[in-house]
Amino acid sequence: MNSAKPLVGSFVRIQKRDLQSLVDELKAVHDRVVGPREIDSAIVYDDLDHVDQLPIGVIDHQEGGVYRLTHESSDSHFDYVVGPQSLKSFLFPPHETISESFRKDGQWEIQAVETPATRIAVLGPRACDLRGLAIQDKVFLEGPYVDPGYKRRRDALFIVAVNCRRSVATCFCHAMDCGPAVTSHFDLALTEMDECFAVEIGTSAGGVAMDATSWEPMSETEVAQAKEVSVELEESMRNGTSARQMETGGIRELLMDNLEHPRWQEVADRCLSCGNCTMVCPTCFCSSADEVADLSGDHVRRERSWASCFTAEHSYMHSGNVRKTTRSRYRQWLTHKLATWQDQFDSSGCTGCGRCITWCPVGIDLTEEVAAIRGE
Amino acid sequence: MSEKPKLAVFKFASCDGCQLSLLDCEDELLAVADAVEIAYFLEARTDQIAGPYDIGLIEGSVTTAHDAERIREIRQQCKFLVTIGACATSGGIQALKNWQDADEFVRSVYATPEYISTLSTSTAIADHVPVDFELRGCPINRHQLLELISSLLRGRRPTTPSYSVCIECKRRMTVCIAVARGVACLGPVTQAGCDALCPAFDRECFGCFGPKETPNVISLTNHYQQQGVDGDHLTRLTRSFNANAPEFKEASDLLSGEPPLADNGDH
Ligand code: SF4
Ligand code: SF4
Ligand code: SF4
User: Fold this and answer.
1) What residues make up the domain containing A268?
2) pLDDT of A43-89, one tens digit each?
3) Model ipTM?
4) Do residues A256 and A199 both lie within one domain?
5) Model's pTM, two decimal places?
6) Which CATH class is domain B6-154?
7) How far does residue A129's CA lie from ligand 2's centre (Å)?
8) Are residues A120 and A82 in the same domain?
9) Less crowded by CB within 10 Å, the N or C end of chain B?
């Protein structure tokens, strides 16, 4: 039992039953605590009051266009991986009113809508999600224009990450260098062990949050054991079948040199241009802004919503649509995600989370598309 | 300020549900009445003001020779002609008769079939006259109706999406029932506008807003068949409120192997 704050960078141990006191502490200092919950046949983020609400013993099975849960008798708290949602919806909400305009005596008055951020503590994001977060931070915060709403919400976000112990068949974070080990962008990171959780302290706020929980220091050997969980998983992902593989060497040139490859038409014959892949992708950041006027025309709201490069609206320019075909839209999406993203943001736009594969209604798989263009 | 624009609402073969959406705009109805003159709307007022009209809203499909004539006259009376609902836009649920013998229906349903004069098909308004804008749905969404009126008043294009129901479904964080439960859902090929109402209530999308832009219905039905969904079920799914919409019709004909009788020149 310890009362001092654990240091940033250190590992401590808590008993499984003590996870509740961490949740209680988070509830005391945040407006909302959210965590993984089994709702409507999937693992989604929702309010978490009690650790009993976690999907304990639940295992997910994911394939192209298929997601199923099964229930085991184990006491594992986190052995499902990522569901359809990521951190994106907390920081870049699907709908947001960004300004309002009022006409009074023929004059327009425009007001920014600056809703104060809800202070949210999220339990459960995985390595790929944190990489997705880092990419969205770059997009929304690190360019010449800072998105004020994103910044407010980001500053108010507290993250308790989780190291995966298993992967599903659609995961390929190892191939994208984004996981499975959690390495940055967290306040606390949990590794589930047989009897306890190893907790890595990521920030001083994370250390403070541990105050109310009984924790014990971990020996070097114990820390090494905890780290071994990710190492073993990564090994099995590289060798085994419970992961997708993607060869990323020279991928920018591969895609950009093959813009007329026949494969683009083959995938377009299957693709529905439904946009699900972009909605679930933790890094896709496109939005549209619509002016919504009331009937009098004196009050106009500017509404920002998630948009997708798979829609005709998205590529409509002043005099027409520049991407009329599904072929051109799929190619735009994949080449941006894996190739031109590098030019724009100095990294890949893909974290290997596999969501776009699982949640595509017809199971289109970007790893297969890349392999086909490589001629594999 | 000049005279208020004149709005007219006309009914063809339909259930009246879409017209009711206008009356359903309770909170906004006074504002609508302020902004436009409701010149012709039999369901709402007995006074009828003669055309021409600035905005004509058409509900229902064409199922009689008389209606085919009437829509031409109405077109001449209306500056903007807008179809409202699945019936007007694609022919509606009643277009199921296009695959059957309409005369036989008339004989079996009506006591004195001689009094009934009907075409063998139910067709969209756009099959008869040029249409300026479509509001989809069965019934239409009243927010879209208000958006339409408010845009036409200002001379701008209404912002109604042409993308898939899935986009709305994901924006409201509904778990996809197609992927998580294997239920055949038409959301990926259906135009948004309902805010993904059915999936939010745990039901598959029935396609009541009709095909979205660039729909790939056959890829979706092929996939569902590979996943073990019964072909007859998929025929019924694609052959409902928008059975006669070209992309849904193409898919249901392929699934069932039977094109509409009217296509064969039988009628
Ligand atoms: S492209 Fe697909 S696998 Fe990559 S981050 Fe986006 S959803 Fe995940
Ligand atoms: S790849 Fe799949 S999810 Fe993405 S638009 Fe095409 S069909 Fe929809
Ligand atoms: S439930 Fe239907 S509408 Fe919603 S995402 Fe899935 S396929 Fe699309």
Assistant:
1) 251-287+307-374
2) 999 999 999 999 999 999 999 999 999 999 999 999 999 999 999 99
3) 0.95
4) no
5) 0.95
6) alpha beta
7) 21
8) yes
9) N
